[in-house]
Specification:
The chain has 160 residues and is mainly alpha-helical. It contains three helices and no strands. Helix 1 packs parallel to helix 3. It is rod-shaped.
């Protein structure tokens, strides 16, 4: 029973840490959104947000793995003595609800950012296409003005 109490405390700390990490992911998503909404895509801010999110996602995976291992060790004790651990179970349920709410918020932000990313890349492609077309037109004009794009008359006199 003493071990179970220790495991439960560690599980609650793990859930608290997971809440903090999800809050950091939300901040990183906001940073990414700001970078995407800027008229000139801020590459540094965008890359920074991706690196931050990657770091936090790895932390989440570690926390999930550790929590799952601890839960496997105490699940029988929790199930058999629900009344004894009622407060701890209630606290963890509240934490899990908060984690779920944050997870939904992260998913919503990710969908929003992905949509904006695709819109931004489409806009950039369009601008690149316009620059290419302008360069081709300017090059054609330059060739015509310098006579590089025209052929000299090719008339052959067949009388001799």
């Amino acid at each position: 029973m003493e071990n179970a109490n220790n495991y439960i405390v560690i599980m609650q700390e793990s859930l608290s840490k997971k809440i903090e990490v999800l809050q950091e992911i939300i901040k990183a998503n906001d940073l990414q959104w700001e970078a995407l909404r800027d008229d000139e895509l801020d590459d540094e801010k965008f890359e920074e947000s991706i690196e931050l999110k990657d770091k936090f996602i790895k932390q989440l995976e570690q926390l999930d793995s550790g929590f799952e291992q601890l839960y496997q060790k105490v699940s029988g004790e929790l199930q058999n003595n629900k009344t004894l651990y009622k407060d701890a179970i209630g606290t963890m349920q509240a934490q899990i609800k908060q984690i779920t709410d944050y997870s939904v918020q992260v998913q919503t932000q990710e969908a929003r950012n992905q949509k904006e990313f695709f819109a931004k890349t489409a806009q950039i492609r369009k601008e690149i296409h316009q620059v290419k077309a302008t360069n081709e037109a300017a090059s054609g004009y330059y060739k015509n003005m310098n006579g590089l794009g025209t052929l000299e008359p090719q008339f052959l006199d067949q009388k001799k």
